[in-house]
Amino acid sequence: MELEILPMDQNIFEKAINFKLEIFKLAHTFEDEKKFWVWKYLTNPYKMNGVPHGYVLKQQDNVFGIIGQFALPIKIGAIETTGYAACDFSVDEDFRTYGLFLANKFWRDARPSVSLSTSVNRASFNIHKKFGAEDLEIGCISMMRVINYKKTIRMFFKYREKGMQEERLENNTMTNLSSSLFKTLFKYDFKKFPSGMTVSSINNFNKEFDDFWQKISINYEVAIVRDKKYLTWRYVNYPLKGTKIFAAYDRNGSLSGFISLNKPLDNPYSNIAIDELFTKPDDYSSQNALIKTAINYSKKEGVAALTATNFDLSLNNLFQKNLFFEMKSANSKYLYKFNGSPPENNRWYTSGGDGDVSF
User: Fold this and answer.
1) Is 355 helix (H, G, I), strand (E, B) or coil?
2) Taking a C-beta distance cutoff of 8 angstroms, is the pair 309, 120 a contact?
3) Is the pTM of this model over 0.90?
4) CA–CA distance, 308 with 331 (Å, rounded to integer)
5) How far is Cα 58 from Cα 68, in angstroms, rounded to an integer?
6) How far apart are alpha carbons 15 and 3 in whole angstroms?
7) In this structure, are strands 62-76 and 79-91 parallel, antiparallel, or unpaired?
8) Is 183 left (phi over 0), alpha (psi -120 to 50) or beta?
9) Which domains does the chain have, with CATH numbers?
10) Mean pLDDT, contiguous 10-residue spans, the chain (359 residues)
């Protein structure tokens, strides 16, 4: 029977989910993964007319490959548009040669203003590069803060036992874990915030976050639009992990930044990840207060480690001052492609929550 590449509609939705669960051996239940896909694709408020949210490689009633793409609001210079991030890209071993055809559907047929790919394996990375995607070098950096040394060591060996391709852990973990343990035990971790600053837990994003985005966004040439609408969909409505959000306020009571933490339901090693840390670029007081809040919250939760991915170098330096260490990775977490002329100054602001790597 002839293979077909078709838009992923609701008639094939559940078979595509089962295919992903089988390929990746995820800990999610079918119902959890379905909630995730409905959130990411079907209830996504940023869909662009004429662009399907995914394609499937189908033969008769069986699915042998999938590629998904979820819409995101993108600021490019002074313009706000819709971009798409590639995700859920997988092909059955017997149909590998058709991977290029699936990727072609995303990179060439859809043609959104901006295309992102959060490739975490070499095969996917190389395919997207064939279609003109470029490295976003900031995405190469991941940071880890050991919260519980014994739990982190067990996490490392469990990854090894399962044969997981965790290059960040494989290359330099043992050396850095030892160094991190020494620093954690013998360097005093100051918890006081600058005078007059407060950090509070919040459950939703209100209008002040719209105002905050408008004020801060002028510092970035390219970024996902972090307004109330996006932040609510991305963090408050996300169905599969325990999200904890903290907001920082200056001595005048004005919002100065926020941080979003997640503890994935499918993570057997109890990590917490910093999905979002957004402040004015040079507001080190707010950044430091939010990082320390994340550390203290992680300690209360009793997790193995706190991680942070894809922030700029100044923030990574601040993470290091708070006893995080850098983890190595062979692949960039982000690839990007502009359909048309890219902005002259394509300075990105990225966070771990921007892409499929943390979903």
Assistant:
1) coil
2) no
3) no
4) 16
5) 14
6) 16
7) antiparallel
8) alpha
9) 4-132 (3.40.630.30), 142-330 (3.40.630.170)
10) 78 87 77 87 79 82 85 86 79 81 71 67 70 68 82 68 46 54 53 77 96 94 92 90 91 95 69 91 92 93 86 83 76 68 75 60
